[in-house]
What does this fold into?
Amino acid sequence: MSPRAFGVAIFALAVAAAPVRAWAQGNRTAEAERVLRSLVEIYGPSGMEGAVRAAVERRLPAWASPETDSAGNLWVRVGEGGAPVVFVAHLDEIGFRITAIHDDGSLELARLGGFFPSLFEAQPALVHTGSGPPVPAVFRPRPPGAGSPTRTPEAIVGDVGTTSRAATDALGVRVGHTMTMPKRYVRLAGTRVTGRSFDDRVGSAALLLAVNALDRSRLRHEVIFLWSVREETGLEGAAVAARALGLTPRRVHAVDTFVSADSPLELPAFGVAPLGDGAVVRAVDNSAVAPAPLVDSLVALAAARRIPLQLGATNGGNDGSAFAPWGVPDVAIAWPLRYSHSPAEVADLRDVVALGDLVRAIAEEW
It folds into this structure.
């Protein structure tokens, strides 16, 4: 074959392969979107994660034998031999808990997790009773003269439209029930998506993507996939799992949000991880510092698997730090998120795919 003919042939192969690559990428982001959407649109404030846990169970492969512990954590164990490697993503989302019902029927609320309550003022709401459909409600706006709208309100009050405690009680609303803002998964331009509770439904979806693609014949040790409860209120579910496992795990990988400065109004001096550039090693946050040799090894693994990976430091804590008292190294992995703990979180489906691939690679090879 002449050099010219060879060049023409190579060009033709490249052109023919381009639609295949585009189809493959589109097919994988579509799969990630199906899983993520199915989890995002289910409500699960801290302490009421049952519906989310059930949705995860429905998407597990046939070989999985899921177990639920006394705290409500969901466990899937696979592989044999050696110290186990643990992946943990949390099922819960931020919200409010009803702490009192006033004489006028209004609801006193306490926050479940850390966020700016002003983002929820004067918005529609839902009371989750744990039985039957949610009760429609609103988060009352602050009264006139109650402070600048740019400052955090002293309290957020729930309103189900009643004028007495008895009328609120008749709706089935009780102290201890939870309250959230309604939410909906929405596709933005390209591969960007928005909604509420991406923290940590993206992590939960990534574990599902990894479990369903896992090549179990490649495992050299036991792997534990764990979906935890009550992370937003103090890593409570993870603490129960850590006590159960004690000194046995080789390491733990919390799979959670990387709160990124990749947004128009933030300074790029800290927490920079652009959306769409891949998964993130959450090397440093407020709760843990990942051991440098493990970070380096993880970077090499991602490069070998051609998984796009970023490194960064960010704020917040992660479930893996609950294992620290037992001497278990915590190497948190994440995806970049804009507007964390707000009603309009923004993520990129390409990062969800990369995160699922990274979890699978760690389980199979590292």
Notes: Residues 5-23 have pLDDT under 50 and may be disordered. The helical segments are 3-40, 50-58, 165-170, 198-213, 236-245, 292-305, 349-365. Residues 18-93+196-365 form a domain with the Aminopeptidase fold (CATH 3.40.630.10). The first strand starts at residue 67 and ends at 68.
